[in-house]
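Rotation project, supervised by the postdoc (A.L.). Task for the rotation student: set up a whole-complex structure prediction and record inputs and outputs verbatim in this book. Inputs entered:
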Amino acid sequence: MPEKVALIGSGNWGSAIATKIGVNASACADFDDKVYMWVFEEYVKEEDGKWVRPARGAKPPEGKTWVDEGYTPLTQVINEKHENVIYLPGIELPHNIVACPDVATCVDGATMMVFVIPHNFLAPIVPKMEGKFAKGAIGCSLIKGIEFEKEGDMKPILISDLLQAEMKKSDGAPVVDMSVLMGANVANEVAKGDFAEATIGCTKPENGLKWCKLFNTKDFAVQAVTDVAGAELCGAMKNVVALGAGFCDGLGYGGNTKAAIIRIGLKEMQKFCKVFYGDRQIKDETFLESCGVADLVTTCFGGRNRKCADIFAKNIAAGTPKAWDVIEAEELNGQKLQGERTGTAQDVMKAIKAKGVVDAFPLFSQIHKIAFEGAKPETIIDMKLEKYY
Amino acid sequence: MPEKVALIGSGNWGSAIATKIGVNASACADFDDKVYMWVFEEYVKEEDGKWVRPARGAKPPEGKTWVDEGYTPLTQVINEKHENVIYLPGIELPHNIVACPDVATCVDGATMMVFVIPHNFLAPIVPKMEGKFAKGAIGCSLIKGIEFEKEGDMKPILISDLLQAEMKKSDGAPVVDMSVLMGANVANEVAKGDFAEATIGCTKPENGLKWCKLFNTKDFAVQAVTDVAGAELCGAMKNVVALGAGFCDGLGYGGNTKAAIIRIGLKEMQKFCKVFYGDRQIKDETFLESCGVADLVTTCFGGRNRKCADIFAKNIAAGTPKAWDVIEAEELNGQKLQGERTGTAQDVMKAIKAKGVVDAFPLFSQIHKIAFEGAKPETIIDMKLEKYY
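Outputs recorded:
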């Protein structure tokens, strides 16, 4: 029986990954040709060659629908044009990707479910899938980010665990074996077909291999490691290290120093995984995969956190310090640096403090002091590194 | 008895590292205060505020010496001004660093010897040390580069092994336990006191710790791994990967692709070490040290090989291909890209072919095809990567 694949999510990254899944589902006998893609339904229309949506929060006139007003459901546009005109304009989606606004229909009989939705969609969406997907179905989360317990030891919570928890049987046992896909993946570049790599973090090698087969293409090289927690945490922790890299850039520090900050950051990411998820199978080699060193390098040279931290340090040097939210608003065209980005650095510090392991994370601690406690950016190198003699 | 330290070499990197060694030898009771620094004697004079040497190959007039001509021995200038005016101008050397033109005097009674000389100096210089250094002396090589056997299996030869071989007892047993210091270290930045890290590769942990103690300062964080071959080979192999990174830049590829090339390069560096030095204790963690990932990142974003490969790819795209030596001459102000740099990529390929392991090195192979066999730079992503399912 071929695997029945469902893609839950259709934003920028979801649509980009659909280009890989669609090709493989079509070409390979292991998979059912048709892949449903769940789309949060919106209404769109073309104006002067550009697809637009109604203003945020707007409602159609009394007694009318958006369709009456000349709009078309996004799912319909995707299925007719084979293009996600809103979230991935200009890229043709494989024709076997079928947009569908109903998540229950989407996952009906699915044996492999790919999740790529904002994580505040988890609670409203996932329970609707209950009883629809096939027994023994497996899941793969492409959702970046991390949650933290709000009290007690403030422990980090994996999004893949949250997903799995939403799909538990009545006796509490997990019904879906969850993997993750992480890596140095700027969505638009992946969609264009630029060569990129990614990492599957899985619990069972046989499931990891299934996911590799589904995602891997000539321009998207996917490898599996049996380490869900390591792969997923890398994707969140890199945003902390990128603040340190940005401070270096803003201070005009040279290559030696920035490379040292990135490397110490990678080691602290590894330590963080072991301290908080030591009960899982954290593997050292995970950090040499795309989800580890490659994603970190990309983020520390090109990411938004790096850029904002660069500006943050420059503003302090110029005697005109600015708050993070001001920098974000000014530099990112109103696009938020997102709670899970600078916010991650704060949550990570809370978790480290609650666990009583501050001394083990000299870089994370110093980044926090600079970003949120008024320490000068120059103190980035005043880490209390462990002595090695 | 305090350790008696000798520094053999006084070029840019040798003088930079003298700033760390001098401070520690002076401050720490473990070391004898005075550190001899062997200097290849040259004659210098100040002209218009700049120190100059006679033209290359020039001889003083018949019956005269350079001193008669108003020049001063470099050793004398270093010892009077505490500055290596030729190789590290503008940086004050600690006053306990004593320049000495005679290597036998330099290492007389030495218990710790630091080597930082061009490797063509090994054969003429090292034998002169015979019988002078203390019994049980240990050595540390800071020499970057690699040699290869000229025939047969073209095996890579470590410079630290060459050094040790030059100091063997008559029965062939090694007389000096050799370590190496490698890392993301641009010499001028280290000398200025910019924060940097470095890695000691050692065979015996107790010796690694001695070297850490000698080199480690607040702005120069040194850690030891018991892996000489891994640490030393990283410093040579990175120059191969940097060519691939430069091709990506020249082609205008994005962050995903460049990060993938760097990461695959790091894995092939690791594999190369294991294939050719599997009999030594190659450690996975070595590649997460400064000598591994940090030095690689610095070289792939800022090094000379990267720059020349960038230009090489751009010239091909523009329809005006240029040979490596032309690019080097034009772009590096006559400074050679050095045999051990592009040359390393060629020697590495010969060794891989001789061993019959080409398939295990898809990136190194593709870089070689582009750099030396006329393949188009765009084929950098046509690596035959291993399948993971």
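Student's summary: Chain A touches chain B through 51 residues (CB under 8 Å).
Supervisor addendum: The longest helix of chain A spans residues 228-251.
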